[in-house]
Write a structure and sequence with these properties.
Parkin_co-regulated_protein, ARM-like, PACRL protein, 216 residues, Leucine-rich Repeat Variant, ARM-type_fold, 62% helix, two-stranded antiparallel sheet
């Protein structure tokens, strides 16, 4: 009887060891498959559309936001305890006005931070560099339609930034802007009916007349 038990126990043990060996050895031929299957996944990451076609980064809200996201605006917002400021990656004097000044003007129509600050301050500081007049005048045919869009915007802050930019541009280019004013006065006259902008627009018109000379 003991021999039978030994034999039966031996028979029972041998299949188990065989199964254990097969279990430990079976993943070896299958191991390349898991390595092959995940490979297409990294390629999916290279195409943002396969991840989220409706994501915020797949459709930039404007040309300015797209250029800014790609690092095409050579300045960045620096947060201060009291006041924010711009930090330029290179001297503004060395930056080509074409197309940066036009791009910054397009950014005036933004309503999100930091685009609002970067576009407004960048446009202002770029016009303050030496030789700005000669660089800005040839761009007027492209700048005026962009400023007109900002002045026609329903958002009050966008309109305010557009008005400030117009006065800043007028101070730099002077009478060269006179021929383009007719395209902007309609939008200004509409807002003139709004009490909260009446004084601001009146002052702006006086400055445009001052910078433009008698012809304006």
């Amino acid at each position: 009887g003991s021999n039978v038990l030994r034999m039966s126990s031996g028979i029972q043990i041998k299949p188990k060891t065989a199964v254990q060996k097969s279990k430990t050895s079976s993943p070896l031929p299958c191991s390349p498959e898991p390595a092959i299957k995940p490979q297409p996944k990294p390629s999916d990451k290279l195409n943002p559309k396969t991840i989220d076609p409706f994501g915020a980064h797949s459709r930039p809200p404007s040309a300015f936001a797209a250029v800014y996201a790609k690092g095409g605006i050579p300045c960045r917002l620096v947060h201060g305890s009291v006041k924010h400021r711009l930090q330029w990656e290179c001297l503004p004097e060395t930056v080509p006005f074409d197309p940066l000044l036009v791009t910054l003007a397009e950014g005036l129509g933004e309503t999100k931070h930091p685009y609002t600050f970067v576009s407004k301050e960048g446009f202002k500081e770029l016009l303050m560099v030496e030789g700005a007049t000669e660089k800005a005048v040839p761009l007027l045919p492209r700048l005026v339609p962009v400023l007109k869009t900002a002045l026609a915007h329903s958002d009050d802050e966008v309109f305010g930034r557009g008005l400030d930019a117009l006065v800043q541009l007028s101070a730099v280019v002077g009478p060269s802007l006179n021929d383009h004013l007719k395209h902007l006065l309609t939008n200004l006259s509409r807002r003139l009916m709004d009490k909260k902008f009446r004084e601001k627009i009146t002052v702006a018109l006086q400055k445009l007349e001052q910078y433009g000379g008698k012809v304006s």
